[in-house]
Amino acid sequence: MLADDIVLGFRFGVFFFVGGIIPNPLDIRFQKVSGLSATVDTQTLREGGQNLYTHKLPQSITYGNLVLERGMVVGSPLNIEFNIAMSLFKFFPSNVLVTVFNEDMAPLAGWLFIKAYPVRWATSDLNATDKTMIIDTFELAYTRMQMVRI
Predict the structure, then answer these.
(1) What letters, b where the CB count within 10 A reaches 16 and e where it falls short, cover 113-145?
(2) Is residue 21 predicted with pLDDT exceeding 60?
(3) What residue spans define the domains of the chain?
(4) Mean pLDDT computed over 57-86
(5) Considering only CA atoms, which of 125, 124, 120 is closest in space to residue 135?
(6) What is the largest CA-CA distance in the chain?
(7) What is the pTM of this model?
(8) At the fourth CATH level, which superfamily is domain 11-38+64-149?
(9) Which residues have CB under 8 Å from 98's CB, separation 6+?
(10) What is d(CA 82, CA 120) in angstroms, rounded to the nearest whole number?
(11) 38, 45, 84, 115: which could form a disulfide with 55 (CB 3.0–4.6 Å)?
(12) Rounded CA gap, 8 and 33, in Å?
């Protein structure tokens, strides 16, 4: 593997598509993205008279929640959407695209999250003796994830 083949995980953007089509240009920078996972759930099937092994059959796919972290931002559309969900229990699912870029800022790979909606919003602790940035954590559930490799 050549050094040019290694994809580094520090150049990325997160793109929210309002209404599924219009990108939100303000909420693209995040410090950390996690939860990029999918698992095939299986069902164990025992075969009559067979005691040496069981069959594992694919049953469904389970996705981890998408977790986004960034420094606290005042007046962002994402904050407004999360506030509406958490205070009024009104949800407006949107598509979210997480993209990894190369050194020339050309996209290399991505993960498209279909019909994502807020499920958790947390703010880091406040401490008068510690001069650290306030971090907001946004967690989203979604219907389906589609991996994109360029």
Answers:
(1) beebbbbebeeeeeeeeeeeeeebbbbbbbeeb
(2) yes
(3) 11-38+64-149
(4) 94
(5) 124
(6) 68
(7) 0.86
(8) Hcp1-like (2.30.110.20)
(9) 12, 13, 14, 15, 33, 36, 66, 110, 111, 113
(10) 8
(11) 45
(12) 13
- Residues 120/98, Cβ–Cβ less than 8 Å: no
**Using one digit for the tens of pLDDT, what is the confidence trace for 22-48?**
777 788 899 999 999 999 999 999 998
Angle at 128 between CA 124 and CA 130, to 5 degrees: 70
DSSP string, 6-58: PPPTTSEEEEEEETTTEE-SSS---SEEE---EEEEEEEEPPTT--S--EEEE
Q: Looking at residues 105-132, what average pLDDT do you find?
A: 94
Q: Please give the pLDDT value at position 150.
A: 74
Per-residue confidence band for 1, with pLDDT thresholds at 50, 70 and 90: very low
C-alpha closest to that of 66 among 26, 42, 32: 32
